[in-house]
Design brief:
The chain has 16 helices and 31 strands. It starts with 20 loop residues before the first helix and ends in a 10-residue tail after the last helix. The model has no long low-confidence stretch (mean pLDDT 90). The structure holds one RNA strand of 78 nucleotides.
Length: 585
RNA sequence: CGGGGCGUAGCGCAGUCUGGUUAGCGCGCUUGGUUCGGGACUAAGAGGUCGGCGGUUCAAAUCCGCCCGCCCCGACCA
């Protein structure tokens, strides 16, 4: 491609609308262009990189026997109602009507259509397992699109669904997909963590997210400082650090605490630690009130509560509700003297409080000296209902956990029979009986991955694409293309490299060398060849690597072979990071 | 959805508070000349319904009202 023909532009200044480096650079380098909040067009450079990611995804999926399909973006209400999600999915679903006033939506995900196809086509265990994927534009009317391609309303996603006869088979395939994802992210030269995640509303047993660190991270994860344990903040079950308790009181003692209705106020009013307080929260879970006791320095983890109660919906109760159910104002609620039939969940963290402060169920009063093991009924079950915090201990090895922020680029789910049950998707098993499919679903944010690569690989001058994702592998810059000797040398090399299937740009623009260099750095070509009177005098060209800035003179007659082996080497460096495929059983 | 900020040429901005000539600056773009290894210099140009609609006024980018859009911070997720 000649630079004079390349449909692009570069911006010298940062666009006002972008905040994150990778977003700024993708705009400045002419990879993408925004049309509306969370809606982008890909310009030729951006699309080339995106296609490279797709190609890697396709290759890796072929290794695990998955087949590509393309489901419709337009989906019918009826299908969504079958799995009960038309109403549940809410505002995030783009809804529209056709000319006959029928309800349709734009697919935010494709469990329903895929399950519909498979239940109609697969009737026998002999046809299993099946794994189908697609790379397709998804639509989600996000409450808050942000960070360019990171959180879009229209975005590219690879989604795959697998169908199995046995759970063993599903679990085996799940591991293969997880490995497939690790290979893909490795080939994109992304730093990633595979972390245990919460099954959440989608349900199912196993569930892992692939997180790239940084990027003003939307998700928080915990990494063990010692072992391999990694989990999302929702899933992580850190062990509690015991803190010294207050001096033990013989009995609970009522104290006057005027207008002290938060943990922070109470801690400073009594000059104690939040961990000396037992917090009493009220949540409305599927319409029913629940009291949750938790140590004052922890937050209730809503996902864990939902899982424990196998519930769908949860919210913090209002002050009125709390008073109606427990006859005490928010801020002064406590475990002593609650109605006998109250539903109570107690987090394990309260066990570490030997002499705690709790609400007295009366405005402006608390009790001191509450000992859960004595003062709560012996039948109390203790569970994990808290959000792990920085410094909690690893559940496997008890080393401190550290919290980092990151971005989810991939997710693998063991769905079990959630959708196949709801949609009556069955086949005949080897005993001749009807059985529902066991399903897995697996996603990669493709457009999000593109920006993640840009985020990890850039510097103050611009993008630094790994060769596997670069829109072009190489740019040839003749300092002055109008000079006949430079032009000849550049043209010759360009033609030769094209014939060898190099992805090469020739910067034939009539502009200064500085502009060409700046643009090359900004766009982030991994390799740059400079041809100038200086180099030609030595019958050589200059080769510069974007990733480390190193450069060397290469004799003209050797440059083609040198580039061929260099390209091979760069790909090899990436391949060496890729974990091996799991053997197929 | 709540809170904050912004909308003036392809991009970045000034002008708005305190209404008043032909709405300005830088980058980019066009043409000529001089340059030519890290975003050159110079001369001459082109490019605007000042987000939209309505109102106030002799007069509105500027004041008032309504609407639309974009960005950031929080509740959600690939």
């Amino acid at each position: 491609m000649r630079a004079t023909r390349l449909f692009t532009y570069t911006l010298r200044e940062d666009p006002a609308e972008a905040e994150v480096d990778s977003h700024i650079l993708l705009l400045r380098a002419g990879f993408i262009r925004q049309f509306a909040a969370g809606v982008f067009a890909y310009l030729p450079l951006g699309l080339r990189s995106l296609k490279k990611i797709e190609k890697i995804i396709r290759e890796e999926h072929s290794f695990i026997g998955a087949q590509e399909t393309q489901l419709s973006i337009l989906q019918t209400r009826e299908l969504w109602e079958e799995a009960g999600r038309w109403d549940v999915y809410g505002d995030i679903l783009f809804r529209l009507k056709d000319r006959k006033d029928r309800d349709l939506c734009l697919g935010p995900t494709h469990e329903e259509p895929i399950t519909d196809i498979v239940r109609n086509m697969v009737k026998s265990y002999r046809e299993l397992p099946v794994a189908l994927y697609q790379i397709q534009t998804k639509f989600r009317d996000e409450a808050r699109p942000r960070f360019g391609l990171i959180r879009c309303r229209e975005f590219l996603m690879k989604d795959m669904y697998s169908f199995h006869e046995t759970n063993e088979d599903l679990e085996n395939f799940y591991e293969q997909v997880a490995r497939c994802y690790e290979r893909i992210f490795s080939r994109l030269n992304l730093t990633y963590y595979k972390v245990e995640a919460d099954p959440g509303a989608i349900g199912g047993s196993a569930n892992h997210e692939f997180i790239v660190p940084g990027l003003s991270g939307e998700s928080q994860i915990f990494l063990c400082s010692n072992c391999e344990y990694k989990a999302t903040s929702e899933k992580a079950s850190g062990k509690i650090v015991e803190l010294p308790s207050l001096n033990k009181e013989d009995d609970t003692k009522e104290i006057y605490t005027p207008e002290v209705d938060t943990i922070d106020k109470l801690a400073s009013f009594l000059n104690i630690k939040p961990a000396d307080i037992i917090k009493t929260m009220v949540f409305i879970v599927d319409g029913k009130p629940y009291v949750i006791l938790i140590r004052g320095d922890y937050e209730v983890n809503e996902a864990k509560v939902l899982n424990k109660l196998n519930a769908k919906e949860l919210r913090v109760a209002t002050g009125e509700e709390v008073f109606r159910y427990y006859f005490a104002p928010i801020g002064f609620l406590g475990p002593k003297g609650l109605p006998v039939n109250a539903r109570i969940l107690v987090d394990e963290s309260v066990i570490t409080v030997k002499s705690g402060v709790v609400g007295a169920n009366k405005e402006n009063f608390h009790f001191m000296g509450f000992n859960p093991l004595q003062d709560l009924p012996a039948s109390t079950n203790y569970g994990d209902y808290r959000t792990t915090k920085n410094g909690d201990l690893c559940p496997l090895c008890e080393a401190p956990l550290k919290e980092i922020k990151g971005m989810e680029v991939g997710h693998v789910f063991n769905l079990g029979t959630k959708y196949s049950d709801a949609m009556k998707a069955t086949f005949t098993n080897r005993e001749g009986k009807e059985q529902t499919f066991l399903m897995g679903c697996y996603g990669i944010g493709v457009s999000r991955s593109l920006q993640s690569v840009a985020e990890e690989h850039h510097d103050e001058n611009g993008l630094k694409w790994p060769i596997s994702v670069a829109p072009y592998e190489l740019i040839i810059i003749p300092i002055d293309y109008q000079k006949i000797d430079q032009k000849n040398a550049a043209d010759q090399l360009y033609e030769k490299l094209l014939s060898l299937k190099f992805e090469v740009v020739l910067d034939d623009r009539e502009t200064t060398a500085g502009v060409k260099f700046k643009d090359a750095d900004l766009i982030g070509y991994p390799l740059r060849i400079t041809i100038s009177p200086r180099t030609l005098a030595k019958r050589a060209v200059e080769l510069k690597l974007r990733k480390d800035g190193s450069s060397e003179l290469i004799p003209q007659e050797e440059v083609v072979n040198y580039l061929l082996s260099l390209r091979t080497r760069l790909f090899k460096e990436i391949e060496e990071m890729v974990p091996p495929l799991l053997s197929l059983e």
